[in-house]
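Hello Y.,

Per our agreement to keep a running log of every chain we model this quarter, I'm adding this entry. I've kept the format consistent with earlier entries: sequence first, then predicted structure.
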Amino acid sequence: MRLILVRHAKAANGEKWADEDDLKRPLTKKGVKQAKQIAKYIAKKYPDVDAIISSLALRACDTAKYIAKKQSHSTFFLNPNINPDEGLQGFLGHKEEIEEDWQTLVVVGHEPSISEFVRFICAKGTLNLYVGKGCVVELEREKEQEWLLVGLHNF
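Predicted structure for the entry above:
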């Protein structure tokens, strides 16, 4: 099984949105370009993604939608458990969906949840990892409970 974790592409400045609903913060022009590059990369390397899951944040949803446009048979759905404030517990609560019979799953989320999740499932907390905006983290399950970090790409 492959698990592709994507940190949403570049979004509008969070400080400028301090008085607004953070879930409505949009992608910037650069973020749209990044999202398209991410979608093209994933489509080329993983043309048969089974499912794409996104947080409810607009910046993540829009990044995920660009990925979905390049996948002809993917299921696309939103999950509040991977919203920005959910943290590692949100990702771990989402684990049963990862355990489905899917071969390739894309999850579009946020930091620090992505790096914490990778650190937890790949290195039992010993990996020092920071995932920047517009980054793709590729994981493969080697055995029942063993995951390997096989790719890290910034766009």
